[in-house]
Amino acid sequence: xxxxxxxxxxxxxxxxxxxxxxxxxxxxxxxxxxxxxxxxxxxxxxxxxxxxxxxxxxxxxxxxxxxxxxxxxxxxxxxxxxxxxxxxxxxxxxxxxxxxxxxxxxxxxxxxxxxxxxxxxxxxxxxxxxxxxxxxxxxxxxxxxxxxxxxxxxxxxxxxxxxxxxxxxxxxxxxxxxxxxxxxxxxxxxxxxxxxxxxxxxxxxxxxx
Amino acid sequence: xxxxxxxxxxxxxxxxxxxxxxxxxxxxxxxxxxxxxxxxxxxxxxxxxxxxxxxxxxxxxxxxxxxxxxxxxxxxxxxxxxxxxxxxxxxxxxxxxxxxxxxxxxxxxxxxxxxxxxxxxxxxxxxxxxxxxxxxxxxxxxxxxxxxxxxxxxxxxxxxxxxxxxxxxxxxxxxxxxxxxxxxxxxxxxxxxxxxxxxxxxxxxxxxx
Lengths: 209, 209
Hints:
With about 210 residues, chain A is of the alpha/beta class. Chain A is built from six helices and eleven strands.
């Protein structure tokens, strides 16, 4: 979905340990800025995924408007569902992009973030997964879940909110993907069969005209 | 989502008894074409919702390319999920629209069409709805369900398929809605509370640039 990054200026929101930043640098980006809220992760990024054209900056995504340069590509991997003010962030990203620039982000699938009580699979009498317990899809907003630690806060948004937020910020929707394992993978690893009931991830690509 | 229809040429796909066609005519459309696969419904439309600027045509949506005129607006209410070749229909509709024209359609929500065994609510020990039994969201394609009669065939598509189909046909996505009853309605009619777990309808507006 990203296309060629050669010669492009790229911003990575929530870059973590910087593995993607290093890839983008190696793929020909002329400049890569990676931001993350975790200073600890950035120290590892600086140690393990350094390059002359990569700059790591310690800041929350909510502060991107303080970055004083423009980009051709903004990417974000599995971070957008932690942002409280999605609409504002999109406006900031739109301002940071050059005309023709693209935003590509992945996040937890809206069906994963929906249940107020957390994502849950229901098993049948045979002990196998029968279905996904869907609740609260249209009750958008804050979710408090356990992930590694208790009390992680994320935000559930419907497909409409995600799409309309981008359009209202001025973006043109280019592509949407809800990836699932291939039939071959599922045959080899049957535990992934349930992803066909409910995908885990959503990827959206949008363009600044 | 439709905006003003005054002075516009409008095509209604799956017009049924023609109530919407009459509304559009009364709202100032200069021409309304309503098509439906049911000759019986069109006879009632002709009898009850006739107007000099409305023309009813008996044809399946799949044959719209045989219509030899252009439109400013194409609407379709709860019919799109019966169309087998969505991508082809969108290409045909794109060709029928004038530049700047819009397509607005509603359909069953993808979470409603998803389960191969049909939409189903699971109740708790208290007899109240606990959750929606979500399965098969990523298994797109044919669904055979009972609705008034047995063996009704419809087609399940993911959000990605719906969005990408429009984009690939040349449309620009303008807006998406997943309407649910208001808090006031739910207080008055608590049986609609479950719509907050899973909406029933999806509405998409797209524009021909």
